[in-house]
Amino acid sequence: MVVNLLRNGALRNNETIVTNTRHYDSLLKALDEIQKVKFGLETNLSSDLMALDIREALYQFGLITGQVSNDELLGNIFANFCIGK
Predict the structure, then answer these.
(1) What tens digit of pLDDT does each residue of 6-52 get?
(2) pTM of the predicted model, to two decimals?
(3) Residue 3 within a domain
(4) 61 neighbors 26 (Cβ within 8 angstroms)
(5) How many CB atoms lie within 10 A of CB 72?
């Protein structure tokens, strides 16, 4: 499929392809957080508030790279899934 996309000109040689759905979702979430920081910089938002967005972007990157601590992972599981109820 990727070869066909390259042959048809739908993809350029320098483009990145994300094949893992979870990685794609994390990249979209990180992009959203980075855009919030950009907006915050443009509107002189408090650096404390922008730091929260930066941390969330880093967390999303950590989900991709595996650099998320066990406590963060467990907190995310319990926050997003109905476990033990």
Answers:
(1) 666 666 767 778 888 999 999 999 999 999 999 999 999 998 899 99
(2) 0.67
(3) no
(4) yes
(5) 13
